[in-house]
Design a protein that fits this description.
Family: Belongs to the 4-hydroxybenzoyl-CoA thioesterase family.
CATH topology: Thiol Ester Dehydrase, Chain A
GO molecular function: hydrolase activity
Low-confidence stretches: none
Organism: Bacillus australimaris
Structural class: alpha+beta
Protein name: Acyl-CoA thioesterase
Keywords: Hydrolase
Number of helices: 4
Number of strands: 7
Largest sheet: 5 strands, antiparallel
CATH architecture: Roll
Strand order of the largest sheet: 1-4-5-6-3
Shape: elongated
CATH superfamily: Hotdog Thioesterase
Length: 140
Amino acid sequence: MYISKKEIEVRYAETDQMGIVYHANYLIWMEVGRTALIKELGFSYAQLEADGVLAPVIDLQVQYKKPLLYGETAMVHTWIEEYNGLKTVYGYEIQKPDGQTAITGTTSHICVDKDTFRPIQFRKAFPAWHQVYEQSKKQV
């Protein structure tokens, strides 16, 4: 299983009045991690969109464990949790600087035609991505 790692410095604007990261900002960091993973695997989400395909989130799960604070550096770990040629589930763990888990989560995605929003079979439309995703996903 391939795991992407991306550092993110917690900015003041991402925190609440208590200096704790506002919960919705973790979702943005998950997207940053997902985009980094796709790039590290040799692909581009921007190119996918240019090819007329979108990959909307169809499910999201997050478990908050420990707060990240202003001035800390978060480490976003991202991997392919599940993949079946149609749906991809990305897994995430965002860690505090000392390695403690701040959050864990998953996002589920399917690919759809940009114009009709009808699902497409990713494995058929993008065979190179399919092969890499098969090789990179979590082994059960």
